Request: fold
Amino acid sequence: MIVTRLARHYLDPPNSRWLRRSFHLLWLVDVTTAVLLIFAPYAKELNPVTVFFYDVFGFAGVALAAATYAGIVVAVGHYLSHPIDLAFLVTVVSMYLFFVFNNVIVLAFDRTIRGISAEASPALVGF
Reply:
């Protein structure tokens, strides 16, 4: 009886294929950069959940943490109504874009986006 009730529930992703693919691509880059941040001696993964999962499970914990984040995003998006789930996904993709870009900058230049902008303009230090 429970199985038949669970079988009736299915995911209803937003209709925007571009947004879904952007989310998947950025998620994959985020997982990759999180693993590389753990390898890099000069950089540090700042997400405490990812660090905890890494301490407990090793590199599989990094993937588990990323899968957990993605699962939460998919579950929340599933329960939102259509216009709101699209806005939610746009917000999540925008946040992922920023965080992934920041991780790539940290790996490439050993500086965060804020650190680079502060070097470029000392007036932004108070930002």
Summary: The first helix runs from residue 2 to 8. The helical segments are 2-8, 17-39, 48-57, 59-79, 82-109, 113-120.
